[in-house]
Design a protein that fits this description.
alpha/beta; five-stranded parallel β-sheet
Length: 203
């Protein structure tokens, strides 16, 4: 018997929107979470094909003493040269996508959440049956990200500028979670959406 096709719910939101909080609530409801940030770390772990190719391209100096990736050194290299950034993305994006597809196929919950910061920007919506955006005003995004990250206002603003605009994200959504008030209000919306999603999953 063929395994049923997994119903994939893409979850995204700009920096400071509360995407991680919403993801955690879905997880508490027993839903499998595929987190793009975790997958991105996994594909460059010691012994991975990704790390071997990065070391071959940039040289062994890109590794720390324990053989793991020196992320700070890599950031400097790709930040300084656009062609290096393009090379790195063309290596990592297919590896990340392939691993995410594998995790989706292994999911056993009613549906799974594909939690991706740049879901819209990297056109990963095509991997999803349904797209959910966690949304709040940009002023609130900035305020929350400043509190959480310890980054400068300029850094947060440049990250926000590099992401899809609030309007672009919301226009790609099948459902929007408004996270402009409290965590309880967000949890209540997730709970309602969870029931809706269960009704959308093919039997």
């Amino acid at each position: 018997m063929d395994k049923r096709q997994t119903f994939v719910v893409g979850l995204t939101g700009g920096i400071g929107s509360g995407k991680s909080a919403a993801t955690a609530i879905f997880e508490n409801l027993g839903i499998d979470i595929i987190d793009a940030d975790e997958v991105a770390r996994e594909v460059v772990e010691v012994g991975s094909e990704g790390l071997q190719q990065i070391a071959a391209h940039f040289g062994e100096t890109i590794l720390l003493e324990d053989g793991s990736l020196n992320r700070a050194a890599l950031r400097e290299k790709v930040f300084a040269a656009e062609e290096e950034k393009i090379w790195l993305n063309s290596l990592l994006h297919p590896l990340i996508r392939s691993r995410m597809q594998q995790l989706i196929s292994e999911s056993t919950s009613s549906y799974c959440i594909l939690s991706v910061p740049l879901l819209v920007e990297n056109k990963l919506t095509e991997m999803c049956n349904h797209v959910v955006v966690v949304d709040c005003p940009e002023t609130l995004q900035l305020e929350r990200a400043l509190k959480r990250d310890g980054s400068t206002e300029q850094t947060i603003k440049s990250i926000m500028a590099s992401q899809a605009s609030r309007k672009e994200r919301v226009s790609a959504a099948d459902d929007v979670l408004d996270n402009s008030t409290t965590l309880d209000a967000l949890a209540s919306q997730v709970s309602t959406l969870h029931r809706k999603l269960l009704s959308l999953v093919p039997a």
